[in-house]
Amino acid sequence: MQDLARECTNLISMVHVSSTFVNSNRPFGSIVEEKCYEPKFDPEELINRIMQMNPQELEIEQPKILEKCGFSNTYTFTKNMAEVVMERRSGDMRISVLRPATINACFREPFPGWLD
Hints:
- The model has no long low-confidence stretch (mean pLDDT 90).
- The chain has helices at residues 2-7, 43-51, 55-69, 74-89, and strands at 14-17, 95-98.
- The chain has one domain (2-98).
- The chain has a two-stranded parallel ribbon with strand order 1-2.
- By secondary structure, the protein is mainly alpha-helical.
- The longest helix is centred in the C-terminal third of the chain and has 16 residues, at 74-89.
């Protein structure tokens, strides 16, 4: 998305929707600031390694990777990696990060289950 954003000549800023739980790997009881923490691993290197795995190997390695990196699920783990990679590649691009607690489908209006 950042590559595409850089091609937009009139772009003023970019908004990235992340998750409140993006830093859920922080030590229990610690203060978690609204910032992108530097991970103990290289996200881009790990992404490349994962992309080389076949589905069976990934199924075996996934729990080990999550545990080693301190995450309980792939959702928060990948949201964290996305923020880190985005920040590293931002350069002079203005980026706002939104971290909603949850995004759910509608209960009633405009109809049950609607999500845009």
